[in-house]
Amino acid sequence: MKKRKATVFLAAVLGVAVAAAGCGSNTGTTTAAPTSAAAQETTAPAASSEPIRIGGIFNVTGDQSSIDAPAQKGFDLAVDLINKAGGINGRLIEATSYDGQTDQAVCANNAKKLIEQDKVIAIGGLSDSDYAYAAGAVAQAAGIPIVFSGATTPDIPDTVGNYAFLTAFGDNTCAYATANFLFKTQGAKTVYVLIDDSMSYTTNLASYFIEHWKELGGEVVLEDHFKSGDYDFSAQIQRYLATGETDAMFISSGPDDASSIIQQFREGGATAPMISGDGWDSDLWGVAGDLANQDIYVGTHYATSDESDVVQNFIKAYNEKYGIDPENAFAALGYDCMMVLKKAIEDCGGDVTSANIRDKIEAIQGLQCVTGTISYSAESHVPAKSVVITKAEDNHLVFVENAASN
Amino acid sequence: MNITYFLTILVSGLKLGSIYAIVAIGYSIVYGILRLINFAHGDIMTIGVYLILVFMNTMGLPLFVCVLLSVALSVGVGLLIERLAYRPLRDATEETTLISSLAVSALLQNVLQIIFSAQRKPFLLPKSISTPMQVGMFKLSVINIATYVVTAVFLVLLYALLKKTKIGAAMRACSENMRAARLMGVNVNRVVMFAFFIGSAMAVVAGLLLAGEYKTVYPSLGFVPGLKAFCAAVVGGIGSLGGAVTGAFVIGVAEILFQGLMPTTMTAYRDAFVFLLMVAVLLLRPNGLFGKNEGGRS
């Protein structure tokens, strides 16, 4: 009797422990990206020019993989192109990247490994704030500049320190711009807001949106919550429908829950336009079939339909290297992240040190990138960019307008 | 709060409860006979869903055929697990087999991750059966209605099987006293394999209903529902089939009611309340709602 109960208890405890661990755990092998050996052979560097070691951390396995794997590819593409063009001031780049496995501890350890073992002088990568904080703290403590490719929490540089920079716009910019688009372009007055409580990205995005929506004079009819991984939205749907529908729905979730939410809400009878931030710029939910054609908008970093040279050249180079179009905006951000580092290292001239790179990143003004024009200052390590509103059509995000954040 | 809203979420709760019930029965049958808490049970469910997805997407077979193929293969996996990971431990303690089942569960999840990646994949059933229609005051799809029907049919069939057939009698005998059953000429291995056969087949059907309902599949899909179904079996009184079903409905309905009736800022934390409820039930009735107050089996 006693023994049986003990076993059942043990089972329950173990089960819960495994469930908790299972949420973020993803075993995957850590692989170093191929360094540019081929390029090294072709260019004859001067005697003084050792390769410049740059590190990359991307969550290419786990929940983040749908956005970080493309970011890694964009980052690698930039390294390739730089090396093919003869490197920076005659020195080639030697990039080493590790998989953060969508695990904060792994991200922090990999930052350590890059700094101590691989002796990198700057780091790029990571598309989500929770992992950016973990890796950023390590880099900051070691005095290594770290440029986050896709993380968008605007207070990251303030929290991590003066060695941290964002490539992307902040969540506040994204949320304000989507609110402006709904209110001004779409003429919406009432919204429903659904928030994933499990990530700081989604809770922040939603609170910026609500704040700005109220400033504009709009009404938040209902604010509802869920936790990433919840599979049943029936109560949320019923509560939403009980409001008699709103002019628009702001869904603050990550890419993984998007398909489930869109499908269930649409089948449940919710017809209002849905909008979300750059977390939905993912190929994942595009597979949601013809439902993707039903009034779904995403505020993101750039649109592939942009005609400018910098965008079209990037898409062409991506296609040449990988045989596909960039999967989402994070590929472009990964690319831009490396381009920011390149520009700073270029400006360093002969004095390529971590501290000098940091200073030169801070001094970047008007750098034309795929995802917009990047400028930093001592006051702001978050570039002010415009947000591109896109609409889901035939499983692609199509450009709608450039939305300002004010 | 209006009554339509309450009834609508109650119907959702019963639907979730039905799915948990099918899974919980699988736990309970195996536990009844082997005293084994089979943590890999939820993963069989996931494997079944992935197989259905593969058959649907690559071969374009009708859903019915995909499900049959998937059930056949998943039952094969279930039996293989029993043969390789549990049968050699038949005489070991409950703790040992429990750990073995956790190891199998982790192994299966990781294998699925290697094959299919950790990314969620949309799992979309044909529109004809997943589009909701107006049924009385509720909006239900064919797959919703199938959930209730399938659960009821399974329960009746299982009851008939246990009470009316020879293998059913053998299962009940093994559950009461395996050694005595063996002495009476019951082929214990066959009974155990049969239990895994039924459990795995039902898990696949539960997986189909769950993934079809919630439109997505990922390697750890079955784990949390499996855990909740296990809790349901414990709340109901583990080993008792009626208990497992009752417990499943209690957990399923409680989950949706907590989600539906608590303030919206609390909905994300509904699982905490569900497990709190489970603790409360067990404090009042340590053997579960229908658990027999028997000692460990001799």
Class from secondary-structure proportions of chain A: alpha/beta
Range of strand content of chain A: 15-25%
CATH architectural name of the largest domain in chain A:
3-Layer(aba) Sandwich
Please tell me the overall pLDDT of chain B.
88
3D structure, described in words:
The complex is a heterodimer of chains A (406) and B (298). Chain A is of the alpha/beta class. Chain A has two domains: 191 residues, Response regulator (Rossmann fold, 3-Layer(aba) Sandwich), CATH 3.40.50.2300; 144 residues, Rossmann fold, CATH 3.40.50.2300. Helices cover 44% and strands 18% of the residues of chain A. In chain A, the strands form three sheets. Chain A has a seven-stranded mixed β-sheet, sandwiched between helices. Chain A has a five-stranded parallel β-sheet with strand order 2-1-3-4-5, sandwiched between helices. In chain A, strands 11-12 form a two-stranded antiparallel sheet. In chain A, strand 8, helix 10 and strand 9 form a beta-alpha-beta unit. Chain A is elongated and about 65 Å long. With 298 residues, chain B is mainly alpha-helical. Chain B has a domain of 203 residues. Helix content of chain B is 73%, strand content 3%. Chain B contains twelve helices and four strands. In chain B, helix 2 packs parallel to helix 4. Chains A and B meet through helix 1, strand 7, helix 9 and helix 10 of A and helix 1, helix 4, strand 1, helix 9 and helix 10 of B.
Summarize, please.
Chain A is α/β, with parallel strands linked by helices and 406 residues long. Chain A is 44% helix and 18% strand.
